[in-house]
Each structure stands twice: as C-alpha cells, then as structure tokens.
Amino acid sequence: MSATDFSPVTLDAMQDYLALFARTPRRASDYSFTNLWGWAEHYGLEWRFEHGLCWLRQTLPEVRYWAPVGPWGDIDWASCTCLGKGMEFIRVPEELASLWREVLGDRGTVQETPGQWDYLYDAADLADLKGNRFHRKKNHVNGYAKAYGIDYHPLTPDCIEAVIEMQEEWCQWRECAESESLLAENEAVIRVLEEWDSIPGLVGGALYAEGRMVAYTVGEALDDETLVVHFEKGRGDYRGVYQAINQQFVQYEGARFRLVNREQDLDDEGLRKAKQSYYPVDYLRKATVRIAPV
Fold it and tell me: Quick check: 173 and 234 in contact, CB under 8 A?
C-alpha cells in the first residue's frame, strides 16, 4: 500500500467506517470510531477503504499498520494483493490473527501483546459489587454515598460544557503539561466531547456533590452485549469517587449489557493493578502479526 492511498481520519467518512465496524467479527475498543477520532491527531491516524475493508495506520511517531476493519470472513486472504508484499500489523484481535495464521501458514507469525489486551468484566459484578471479592470496592462506594450522597445524572448535550470544564481542571490538578501521555489523553477527551452531537452512540454519566460535577464517564456500545468505558475522571479530593462513578455508570448505562470493556493497561503496572482489582472475567486478546512476502 502506497503512502498516497491513505487519508486522515475525518468525520465525513464516519458512517462508512461505522458500517464496516458493525460487520467486524470481534470489535476491540481501539477500533471504535470514538477512539479513532479522539486519538487521530496524536497518532496521525489515517485510513483507506478497499477490498471491502477499512485499512488503518498510524503515522506518528512512526508508520504502523493496525488490523483492517470489516467482515474478515468474506475476504480471500490467500490471494489478497494487499498482503502480498509482506506487512506487520499491530493491535490485531486474536480471531483475525488466528484466521491469518490458518490461511497464510508459515507466512504469518503472531506475537501476543498483553499490554494491548482489553479487560472484560461481568456487567452485573461492576453494578452490584456483591461478595467478598468486591467488599473493599463496596465500602468505598458506601463511604462516598454517606459523605456526599449519590447524585448521578446521564450525560446530555447540555452538560458537555461542564464535562469539558471539569476535564480541563482535572488536567491542571494532575499537571498534564508535565506528562506527554496525560496531555495526549486530555486532547483525545476534548476532541470527543466537542463532537458529542456528531458521534452516534456515545453515552455517559456524571456524579454531582456540593453543587458541582465531581466525576464523569464516557462510553458506548461496542456490540450488542458489550459496553466500553473510554474515559473516566474524578476529583481526587472526594474519597471513593472513582469507585462510585464506576458503579453508578454501569448500574444505569450498562443494564442491557453482559460485559463491560475497560480497555488496556498499556503495560503500566499501576494501571494493571487497578484493572485487575475489579476481577476481569476475560480479555479481548491482541497481537502483533508479521506477514512475510510471497
């Protein structure tokens, strides 16, 4: 694939992408349009629509190809000219990696990348926090409720300005300017929030205490049974606020879902410990796949 075949991710082609994403057999959080749009500038994301698929690549800090999006099972991979010259793909869901290995044989090598695996949780577990495993989480929620009360509201277009204001304040508290990763995340959050009315399917919730917003969550449906959490922020001076917004969001917005996808840990030990503390029931596994030329 030549450099001229790709163009930047834009809102103009969003519906074309969403149609292919809906036909993708395994939908990882990375590939939701929300994620692509939020991180488009940071990664220099580009796409190309060809062979019944959307091909994705990042151009920053270097060119890396992501897994294609669309109906993988409808493609004749063995004769696909797009793979003929040999390529390397990152963030490849294991279902596609297995398909490529089966069809391409020795041409395909697969290396698991656990830092990119999506954490999957039982939605009822996160909403109810029942049993000894979640005793400490439940105590944090109860402590927050006792101190501040539970005042939860779904996010609607008229409160997005307040969410942006809280996000910008959070970024100041966390000194985002001193952290490249936090600064990049802040930019991704703002990009998504500013297009709240344009990106279909976004859902969210916020907690209020003492007359102000103290936490918010933004997510969306990945498929019929999975709700993904893209962003979650709380005011750290409200003890238990993160446990409370986590529980409330799933209770109210996740009632019709079986699973909650809370994205990756990116090999960050602190993040990994936090995600594991909620006892994932499974992972959406991903890998790097290298395909040798014909």
Answer: no
